[in-house]
Amino acid sequence: MNSDKILDAKGLACPMPIVRTKKSIAELESGQVLEVHATDKGAKNDLAAWAKSTGNELLSHAEENGVYKFWIKKA
Length: 75
What we know:
CATH topology: Translation Initiation Factor IF3
Number of strands: 4
CATH class: Alpha Beta
CATH superfamily: TusA-like domain
Mean pLDDT: 96
Strand content: 25-35%
Largest sheet: 4 strands, mixed
Order of helices and strands: EHEHEE
Shape: globular
Low-confidence stretches: none
Distance between the termini: 18 Å
Strand order of the largest sheet: 1-2-4-3
């Protein structure tokens, strides 16, 4: 999946992946996609809930060798 920006949040524990995601998505234009890489298992639920509560769209997520990847489209 194509993304406009990649955020490396690997090695960060909650709530830092969300804090960094919020900051990074603020730098994007509406409709652009942020790709987030995280190793915190809680990030899956946290980012899904965060996207829903902020009106952004979680397009997809995947796990690859212990790294969780998320694609979030800015509202």
